[in-house]
Specification:
Number of helices of chain B: 2
Order of helices and strands of chain A: HHEEEEEEEEEE
Helix content of chain B: 10-25%
Shape of chain B: globular
Radius of gyration of chain B: 20 Å
Number of strands of chain B: 11
Number of strands of chain A: 10
Distance between the termini of chain B: 70 Å
Strand content of chain B: 35-45%
Strand order of the largest sheet of chain B: 1-3-4-5-6-9-10-11
Strand content of chain A: 35-45%
Helix content of chain A: 10-25%
Largest sheet of chain A: 10 strands, antiparallel
Oligomer: heterodimer
Strand order of the largest sheet of chain A: 1-2-10-9-8-7-6-5-4-3
Chain lengths: ~210, ~230
């Protein structure tokens, strides 16, 4: 097999050109690897959390949903109007008593910070009202609500599980409907107020460690 | 001048080699068998449609590959939720009967590390099964194998589409064995802590419209002393 002798065919300028090209390849490899390492592929936008210390311990944070503008989906077989238009809620008998709503949720500054689902199911023995709050930059909360309303129009709930920032948190949440009282044309009909209280779980002391 | 051109061409060629190396890196392998496929415990198997057109509702920022469904659904355009999608879908049991309703929120994860083949999504499921109760599933998913084996070949194809049979587990955590954390909220599974795995089966994909024909599966492993009759 004939192997061309490049040394004889390339002059000095060509050799430098070739070396520059190979140097470029190395730099390109390094630059691509460096860029992937240093520049975050995903950078979630964060709204500053508005957390207050609860009087009896733990932290409190209040979210709300403006109705109807923050409602993404209203899945309810008993509703004559679908939200959004064109939504086809399954007609299956299994889901006849199940209602699911998706919302955008806002913080106390009225900025959208996440999305949530509220599911309600009516059954003879085991009626259910659950919330899942999903805050993309922070994590998620799963809350089981009491079916019965408490005094003052509140419904109480218990944080059953959490993800990421909320993984070790336990506590509760209340929901209540607050009707709008302003006369503004663009004002919502009201809002669902969600008041959460987080309590971190105690961690056992290491063997030999004492509390001071 | 010619040296600069040569250097720039080399840079581009080097970057292209890097991308190719990333996509075809043999050291970035699929996890293979799901840990739940060899379990002796009872499992709840739930199948669901995950192509937006076949779901009850699907929404995102409105500028992503997949179009929201139905057309007039509210879009998630605000900055903190722009990289999030929400899906409502019917969950079916192993016999293809309606078993309940599922809602999935997925957000691009800041723990994504393309260098190590991790294109991570943080997602949670809320599933209500009238027969069992409610479930909360927390998981991280890795879409890198899907990108490498389905989306990239579709992008390279002259028709901008891919057809075939791709089946892969998406769940990679937070469980030590790459399983999702599942919490029972009500009904007969109330208070139970379980493990789960979500997988996806794709038959057709287009770089213009996203998933064309695909199905998802969520498997939840019951604790050893519990039984499930869903499947």
């Amino acid at each position: 097999m004939h192997v061309p002798d490049l040394r004889g065919e390339l002059n000095c300028g060509d050799t430098v050109l070739l070396k520059t090209f190979f140097l470029g390849i190395l730099l390109g490899l390094a630059a691509a690897a460096g860029a992937l390492y240093a520049i975050p592929v995903v950078d979630q936008t964060r709204e500053a959390s508005i957390v207050t210390v609860a009087p009896n311990g733990g932290n409190s944070e209040i979210f709300h949903v403006n109705i109807p503008m923050d409602r993404i989906v209203l899945g309810d077989p008993s509703q004559p109007v679908a939200v959004p238009p064109g939504l086809e809620w399954p007609a299956d008998e299994t889901l006849a008593d199940v209602r699911a709503e998706l919302f955008k949720i806002r913080n106390a500054r009225d900025a959208v910070v996440g999305v949530a689902v509220r599911a309600a199911a009516t059954a003879d023995e085991n009626s259910v009202i659950d919330w899942v709050l999903h805050l993309p930059a922070r994590g998620s909360l799963f809350i089981n609500m009491d079916v019965a309303l408490a005094e003052g129009g509140y419904r109480m709930g218990k944080i059953s599980s959490g993800a990421r920032e909320f993984e070790q948190m336990r506590g509760g949440m209340t929901e209540r409907w607050v009707a709008n009282e302003s006369n503004d044309e663009d004002a919502p009909a009201g809002r669902i107020e969600l008041a959460t209280t987080y309590v971190g779980q105690l961690e056992p002391l290491e063997t030999g460690e004492t509390y001071e | 001048m010619k040296y600069i051109v040569s250097l720039v061409l080399g840079l581009l060629f080097g970057a292209a080699i890097f991308v190719a190396g990333l996509l075809f890196n043999p050291f970035i392998a699929d996890r293979g068998l799901s840990p739940l496929s060899v379990t002796n415990a009872e499992v709840i198997t739930l199948n669901f449609a995950n192509a937006p057109e076949e779901t009850i509702a699907y929404t995102n920022d409105g500028e992503s590959l997949q179009d929201p469904h139905p057309e007039k659904v509210l879009q998630l355009w605000e900055a903190p939720i722009r990289s999030t999608s929400a899906m409502v879908t019917v969950m079916r049991d192993g016999r293809n009967r309606v078993a309940g309703i599922g809602v999935k929120f997925s957000s691009d994860s800041e723990s994504t590390r393309l260098l190590s083949g991790e294109l991570i999504t943080d997602s949670v499921w809320y599933v209500y099964l009238p027969e069992h109760g409610s479930l909360f599933v927390e998981q991280t998913e890795n879409y890198f194998p899907f990108i490498r084996e389905v989306a990239f070949p579709a992008w390279r194809s002259s028709a901008n589409s891919w057809r075939g049979n791709w089946l892969g587990d998406l769940t990679t955590g937070p469980g030590a064995l790459g399983t999702a954390a599942v919490a029972g909220g009500s009904g007969r599974i109330e208070g139970l802590r379980m493990a789960g795995v979500e997988s996806m089966s794709v038959r057709a994909f287009s770089t213009n419209t996203g998933l064309v024909s695909s199905e998802g599966r969520l498997i939840v492993e019951m604790p050893e002393n519990e039984t499930a009759d869903a499947d």
